[in-house]
Amino acid sequence: MHPRNIYLHKAPDFQELAETYPELKRHLVHSTTNPGTAAIDFRNDESQRCLTKALLHRDFGLKLEVPSNRLCPPVPNRLNYVLWIQDIVQNTHLIESLCLSNFEKENAGIDPWNRKENLDQVRGVDIGTGASVIYPLLICSLEPTWTMYASEIDDLSLSYARNNVESNQLQGRINLVNSSGSFGDSDAGKPILWPLFLHEDVLFDFTMCNPPFYSSTEEVSKSAQGKAFEPNAVCTGADTEMITPGGETEFVSCMIKESIQIQTRCKWFTSMLGKLSSVEEVVRLLKELRVENYAITEFVQGQTRRWAVGWSFMDIRLPDSISRIPSPNPTIQRCLPQHNTIQQPVLLHMIKSTSKEDSQSITERLGKMIKEVLGAVDKAVFREVRGGKSVIKIVTSGEEQESQWQSYFVVRMKEDTWSRNARRRRKRQQQQQQLQTPEHLKGADRMTVDDDDFTQDSVITGEDGRSANGIGCTIHLGMKARERGPAEEQSKEEILIEFHWRWGREEDRGLFQSFCSHVSRKLFTTG
Ligand SMILES: C[S@@+](CC[C@H](N)C(=O)[O-])C[C@H]1O[C@@H](n2cnc3c(N)ncnc32)[C@H](O)[C@@H]1O
């Protein structure tokens, strides 16, 4: 479950819940072995619906009505997806605002990130919102300024969706879009991403979708047989909710192809996937279409495992904690996007610490060292942000942890000026200049490759080490709880430098990686 999911640690106390939503009382199954406790019969669809209504009422202040012959959404599972979307949007805005505030004056008009949008006005799209409108309702409850467009093709679901929007007085924030006539094959009707085509002057922040998973009724029953030993929860989904030609892979593949027409008018496209094999197929298509900026996450609730994939045509780079699954199985491992986060643990001897220094003063000193290293990188623009306000999630040993960083640096650069290749390039340029310079003006002031104090060649993409749009990254310096190490170790904290690639094109990945190793090497060979 997502670390911010309110149901993560709380074992459900149905009796307590029923006190806040009395209608649930008649669905409680009282335990005979453990008096005073009660459960819910998940095989009873009425009980399940009542539980969903009770949770939405107590935890989100929402009202809901769903018909007995349509899906009843389990709240904790749907909340996982919403929280991942929140992470994506928050990170995207963080990167945009860093960019706007830091680099606005430089290259105004050229910087692709220099977009004057109101960052408070987030607009999302939910494809196939269902009778419950569950995602838009949760989003509106958690994020008071966001607005949603929610599409549906099924008349019954649409009419319930409308009532649910109205009973929560959210007509001003949730726009329902009738997408009937939208098929997987957009030649045959409206595209699946119909709300984005319909509102072509609107900039969207994200799309989300819980697609029909199956391709046929046979596949639905085969899947149900496979779950014979799982604890049963009744599924009230109608065919229209569960089945689509070609199944979820075809549905999401269509969205990917359609998204190519939308490009950066929507910052992130996402969809849930119910089968691991679909994740592989979808990632294969993304790579085939050269959509290199993508993210994968996993939602686990009890024994149910789902995945979500996101992709973008923007150069925003999400941190690994959002774009990759920690401790993946081999199949998922093959599908994951490359790392955008590089961690450099700091061993005390690397910075010649005195035993009297505490972690606080060591990080201060490291901060100064980083500043010096950055200051010496030719043509890099950087800024230090202090104040310990940035809380960044870090993933270690498969666990997500939040860490309060003391300070961080925002760095932007357009070309490699530090690697051996860069020095060779500079030398060549100097030689060419010398050839063109009259003999008597030639100086002895030449840099040779031998002067280079780097031991490895850096991998830099692009013939001249230059990037068309530049790259941006942040360097975080902070402490996190020590996971391992001798018990007698005095400090319970570990010092860590984390490099985050924040924006840039895939072809500039090498520039980021080379920059990180340059900074690390400089820090720990001169410190
Ligand atoms: C699995 S249900 C998800 C319902 C709801 N979002 C939820 O998570 O509980 C899939 C929904 O997509 C709708 N749907 C199927 N094809 C669609 C299309 N082309 N455009 C919009 N909605 C579609 C179905 O009618 C159904 O309500």
UniProtKB/TrEMBL annotation:
Residues 420-449 are annotated as: Disordered. Signal peptide: none annotated. GO terms for cellular component: nucleus. InterPro entries: METTL16/PsiM, METTL16/RlmF, SAM-dependent_MTases_sf. Residues 439-449 have a biased composition (Basic and acidic residues). GO terms for biological process: rRNA base methylation. S-adenosyl-L-methionine binds at R78, G128, E152, N210. Keywords: Methyltransferase, S-adenosyl-L-methionine, Transferase. Pfam families: Methyltransf_10 (PF05971). GO terms for molecular function: methyltransferase activity. Belongs to the methyltransferase superfamily. METTL16/RlmF family. This is S-adenosyl-L-methionine dependent methyltransferase. It comes from Dendrothele bispora (strain CBS 962.96).
